[in-house]
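Quick note —
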Amino acid sequence: MTAMRLNPTASRQKRMFAGAAWIALSRARYCDHGWVDHRWHELRQLLNKWDFIGVFDPETNTDEYDCMISPLLRRLAAGEDTDAIQQFLNDEPADHFGMSVDPDETNLVAEQLTTWWRASAG
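Predicted structure written out below.
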C-alpha cells in the first residue's frame, strides 16, 4: 500500500487559513471548502495583479503576498467596508514588508477587492 502524499501547497494554504478565518467564514455558504479554496486562489490572483512590490512572476514567484490572503478574507467575510480594507492595505506593506504604498493605489485596490467579494459572495 502506497502512502498518499498531501499537496504541500494546499496543506500550507489550509494552515494559513485555519482558525479565525474559518470562524469568520462559518456562515452556511462559506462552509463549502471548494468555494472557499476558489476565493483564496482568486484573491491570490488579485494581489499578484496589484504586485505592489513588483516581484510577481507566474513561473517562479506566485506566493509573495500569500501572508495577506487570510487577513483579507477574514475582513471581507466579516463585512468590513472599503475604508477598513484600504487601511489594512496601507498598514500591512509597512508592517510586514517595510515599505509604503500609494494611498490612492490602495483605495483603488480596496474598492476592487470589496466589489469582487460582494460579487463572489452573491
